[in-house]
Amino acid sequence: xxxxxxxxxxxxxxxxxxxxxxxxxxxxxxxxxxxxxxxxxxxxxxxxxxxxxxxxxxxxxxxxxxxxxxxxxxxxxxxxxxxxxxxxxxxxxxxxxxxxxxxxxxxxxxxxxxxxxxxx
Length: 120
Hints:
This protein has helices at 4-20, 33-47, 52-74, 77-113. The chain is mostly helical.
């Protein structure tokens, strides 16, 4: 089984996930930035309760099953194994990206709850 397609697929998904994950942008007019930094730190602490690993695991399992099924439809046992491998990696990366997105959402909701105008 060649590892190049698996590595390429995983790299692409992880790169996209890294680009999509940005911190909150707030309207800073009238904001005490020292207080904001403290609030942001507390909100980020709350976000650590989101289990990115669990999302990655669920995605990997789902991706592996889907990849194996597609491999079985289009080929033989070799394509089943390759499909499962690629599907597992891509699914895991997508699951991790979903977990990170949920963390971002928690931080933004927390900041909104503290009265900040979150712009993104």
